[in-house]
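Researcher: We plan to redesign the surface later, but first we want a full-length starting point. Tokens attached.
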């Protein structure tokens, strides 16, 4: 009878081949996010807050600009009109 090691997920996650593939997928995702952000650049603050992080077993694309939600999903302008979002986060999915 076959058994599965309880730590198999950790073993696989730490394999160099798996880490390379995770990074490759992240780089493609980050490129899509950057393309959307760069196409809608107003001040450059959002693009400057974009960071790609690779940790021990995972990787993330982070946007730390405090206005990221309003910029990404849309917001009401001071004159009351709706400003549509750029949906950069969704481009990375």
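Model: Full-length starting sequence:
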């Amino acid at each position: 009878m076959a058994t599965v090691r309880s730590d198999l997920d950790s073993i696989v996650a730490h394999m160099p081949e798996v880490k390379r593939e995770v990074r490759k997928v992240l780089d493609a995702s980050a490129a899509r996010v950057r393309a959307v952000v760069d196409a809608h650049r107003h001040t450059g603050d959002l693009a400057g807050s974009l960071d790609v992080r690779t940790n021990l077993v995972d990787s993330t694309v982070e946007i730390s600009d405090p206005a990221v939600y309003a910029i990404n999903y849309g917001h009401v302008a001071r004159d009351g009109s709706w400003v549509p979002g750029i949906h950069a986060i969704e481009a990375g999915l």
